[in-house]
Amino acid sequence: MSVESPQVHQNRTKALVLAVVLSLLTLYTNTTTDHYEGPAFEYNITNPLPQGSYALCSAEGVARGVYTVDATDGVVECVLVVDEWVKGTGYLGEVKEAWKGIGASDLLPVVRVPQGAVVVPGFADSHCHILEYGFSKQIPLGGLRTIKESVEAVAHYVQSNPDILADEGGIVEGWGWDHKTFEGGKMPTASDLSSHPVLANRQIILLSKDTQLGSRRLRWIRMGLTRLTWMGVLSCGMCREMLQAYSLTRR
Fold this sequence. Notes:
Layout: H1 6-28, E1 42-44, E2 53-57, E3 66-67, E4 75-76, E5 78-82, E6 85-90, H2 92-101, E7 110-112, H3 133-136, H4 147-160, H5 162-166, E8 171-177, H6 190-194, E9 203-208, H7 214-217, H8 239-249
Parallel strand pairs: 1-7, 2-7, 8-9
Antiparallel strand pairs: 2-5, 3-4, 5-6
């Protein structure tokens, strides 16, 4: 059995602390609580985190709201952070004792999250994205940079395929666009697609290259949902799932 070196252990611990902090900033920056009415040396999470050392704790009155996700799936009140390193977990009194135990003489700043919030390590998973090679060959969206290019590419695809051109009730699918590369950050809207005479009455689904923006982008892609049924008509790969997700956002 291999033993983890001290340096690897330190790097892993430091990464965990960073992940926790980033998770909190992401989840709670938009909280409606402007400040925390608590004892001195306590901060609301909407303020900048203290420099150096601090205790990151559950909301006031919540005994355990910090999920350590360790071997025992521990849930505690606070986690002690010392110079970006996790040095202890437990109730506030316990982490204060740990703070004293490392020889600290200063008062320990306490950061509390808003009511109803929890603290979790940063979520990261290992996964892969299928290349969708065949899908990408339908409409070449990968290298497009402007709205005009995108509309023309879709229209050209429709006009180049007689069976698709003849089926105005069918769904035109495209994959591979990258929102980060569009000029000015603007992407085709339903109005843009409808402005082309070939596309005006067609249902179109354009998925991003990671497929993660497709359902959200269905809000601005012309589809004519009222003419569709979930069973029988939608047999086009991801169409059924994407449109079902879209319908849920409209309720």
